[in-house]
Structure formats: structure tokens, C-alpha cells
Target: Histidinol dehydrogenase
Amino acid sequence: MSRISDNEVEFIKRPQGQDLQADLTLSTTVQQIIEQVRARGDEALRDFSAKFDRTVPEAFEVSAQEIEEALAGIDPQTRKDSEFAIAQVKRFAQAQLATMQPLEVETLPGVHLGHRIIPIETVGCYVPGGRYPILSAPIMSIVPAVVAGCDNIIACLPPGAHSAMIAICHLAGAHRIFKVGGAQAIAAMAWGTVSIPAVDKIVGPGNAFVNEAKRQVFGKVGIDALAGPSEIYIVSDDSADPRILAADLLAQAEHDVHTRVGMATTSERVAQQTLAEIERQLLNLPTAVTAGEAWKRQGEIVICKDEEQLIAWADHIATEHLQVHTRDPHGTASKIRNYGSLFIGQNASVVFSDKCCGTNHTLPTMAAARYTGGLWVGAYVKICTHQWIDDHGIAAIAAPAVRQSRTEGMQAHRRAAEIRLDPQAIDQITAGQKD
Model:
């Protein structure tokens, strides 16, 4: 199916034009933070903590006593709910890992190829502070690392984060927890300091500074993805309930004023009623200041002429969260290929994945769903190939390798292949008798 464009659909509400004048100081500021942390380590972390967080912890690492106090202070029901979420995320991650198997195959007589599934040794999980203490955030990044079998799981969260976040980092399985936030935490995990060990890969969402820091340290360490503001899109037909559509859109809109919130439908009635319902629900929504501003800035409603166009539009948007509210939601969903996570049918709200149903809520944004999925247990392992070749295999592959190396002019490669055919050949070559 060919790509669809904005002028092929009808907009009931368009998002405001985005500010194309990006903050040119962001990249420079983050670069300076990284350079300072790399050069001055803990001393720089203390300076940045005082500047950005207005507090400097006595020690960056959370002590055993602090963990005990955080566990004692967490509301019992909150702990139970968090442990429920941990169990669901763990169960799904274990099921995913079970689909990944080591491989050994003999592709030609004597040519044995394979791969191993190897956990990443040390991972750093960034836990955002943000507008709300999102208790599920550490669960989503830490639990899959536990399931994957990573040796060292490091969590970093801003020093002002709610103590319940420390408790849940511990319950989720973090081996060490540090009170360092922002771009400086990313720099510390990438390069290491006296207090904080260097990691092999950094995962977890954060603000624009965290995102830019992850971009700049990529290569020194691995990263999961570069994430923008949260997104939700809903595709529907005339069977959808505008009250539910509005509730789900506003649920995501309360994350941030930059959240992208939209829906596409084949029904003008559903479009108009949803538009009205959003305004009605905003009247008594406690978080209306944020959700309303997000809807004003980024909200959109699109009318498509038929299901084919609806599916094409969904693939064009390639949203982080995609909900399907149609008469045959499984049928519609099966035709869509670009999404971070898919929510099939009226009951499958994004809120369940955000909190506790088991799928990961760290997902691609900014249309990155066209080429990648979200965070999952596979992000914490490496698939590393190996090969071993017996004499029968040499007979099958050495001659083609010799000829290809000769064609390419790579004579050392040719020699390395020839010596497997004739171990005496290298002696004749070095003696000048042949080449």
C-alpha cells in the first residue's frame, strides 16, 4: 500500500503547527554536562545536582537503610499493586524470552553455524522524575533486565524523586540505585565515576535533556531508543463509543502538554461527538490544565473515507500507542503494521499497559514505529553468532573464498583461505616459490 498524505483525509481538528525553531542551546548544554561529568566525575555530579535539583545527596548511592525506610514508608496497597505489575511484566518477559532459542545448524557438510543468546553484562536504567511519580516506570526498564539475566542492573533517578520510586526500583530487581538525574546521570552511566559504574547499555525514558544525552553517548554505550513526548492514536468506525474514545485520549494527554493525541474514524458522527465529549470531560478533569493544553496544541481528529484509508492513515502516523475500536477490531488490527504497541478492541485501553497488564510501556515515538518496536526482554540480550568448520566444510567453502579474495585483490585473505586447503602452501609462499 502506498503512503498516504495529509491532503487525502478530512481534518475535523488539526494540531497546531509545531515550532520548528528548536532550542539550539540544548545540544550544547548537554555536551558541556557530559564533558564535565567525564572530566570531573562525582564533583561535577554534585555541582549539577545543586544547580538542577537544588539538593546534593550526602551519597549518590541509595543505602540499604534508605531502601528499608522506603519500603516501610510505601503505602501497603501501592506496594501490592506494584508487586502485581512486576509479576505481570515478568511473566510476559519470560514468555518472550522463551521464544528466543540458541541455534546450531549444519548448512553444508562440515560447516556448522549458530548463535548464542547472551545477556548484556551491565545495564543502566534511567527512572524519570517528571510531573508524576510514575511507579510503573522502573518496573518497565528493570524487570526485563532481571528476566534476561543481566549481571548488574543500575538504576538512576533524580534525588527529589518520591521515596516510593526507590522502593519499587528495589522490588523490581535493581542491584544498585543512585540519586542522580538528568543528562548528568546519563553521562555518569556512560563514562563511569568513582560512585557510579559505567554500563554497557542505557534504557528508559526521560525529558529532552535526557534524550539528547542518550543521543550523544550512543556509541560509547548502547541505548534503547530516542523518545519524544508520549503519543496515542485511535482508529475507529461508527461502532465506537465517543465517551470511551474521549476518556482514552485525555488519559494520555495528561502526561505532558506536548503529548500527541489523535484519532481517525470513518464516521463523521463519531468524530463530532468525540470532539464534544472531550470538551465535556475536560470541565471536571483534575489534570485539565495539562490535558487540555495538550489537546489544544496537539489534538487531531481525522475522517477517512473507508477502512482501507483508515489503515493507511494508521500506518502513516506510526504512533506509539494505537487503539483499534471497530466492529471487527482483530480483523482491522491484523492489517496494520506500524505501531509501538497495539490495543485491540474497546476494552484494551493504553492505561492497562501503562500500569500493569504486562506489556512494556517504553515504546517508539515520532514515527519510529515504522522501523522498530518498543523496549522488551530482547533489548537486554545479544544474539552472537559462531561457526566451526571441519575438513569436509573446508572442501566446500575454501575454494570460493580463495577466488573471491583474489577477485577483490585481498591477497592476505586469499592466503588465509588457501592454507586451510594446503597447510604447506604458506611455507612455499614465504619462501618465494609460489603466490
